[in-house]
Amino acid sequence: MALATQGLRDAALASAVGETEAGFVLVPPRPGSPLAELGVQGGERLFAVDGQPVHSVPEIQAALRKHALGETAVLRVGPDADHARDLSAKHVSDYPAG
Q1: Where are the beta strands (DSSP E) in 3-97?
Q2: pLDDT by residue for the chain (98 residues), tens digit each?
Q3: Sign of CA pseudo-dihedral 9, 13, 15, 16
Q4: Where would I find the H helices in 1-98?
């Protein structure tokens, strides 16, 4: 995804800076990326991939790697868990952007 693990803030880091909400904070997606085209905003959180809650970057990468590049994965994204929505996004990478 243009999500991949790009734009994820590790839960340990989030905890260290005082964040307590579940999920991984997303940075603003790159213009034209699959997530940008779906309307994902920076500051929203990733809660699950294909219905499986994710709690670490390795879990997110493992979930994404179940899909070949170009296949679609379902991401649970939202400002908080109560307002999250499921989005279908094309898998384009599962490595952090450099």
Answers
A1: 24-25, 45-49, 52-53, 72-78, 85-90
A2: 444 444 445 555 555 544 556 788 888 888 988 889 999 999 899 999 999 998 878 888 889 889 998 899 999 999 999 999 999 998 887 555 54
A3: negative
A4: 11-16, 34-37, 57-64
pTM > 0.85: no
**Which amino acid is it at 95?**
Y
Contacts of 37 (CB under 8 A, 6+ apart): none
Query: Which residue bears the tokens 């590049």?
Result: 69
First and final CA of the chain: distance in angstroms?
15
Give every CB contact of residue 41 below 8 A, 6+ residues apart in sequence.
26, 28
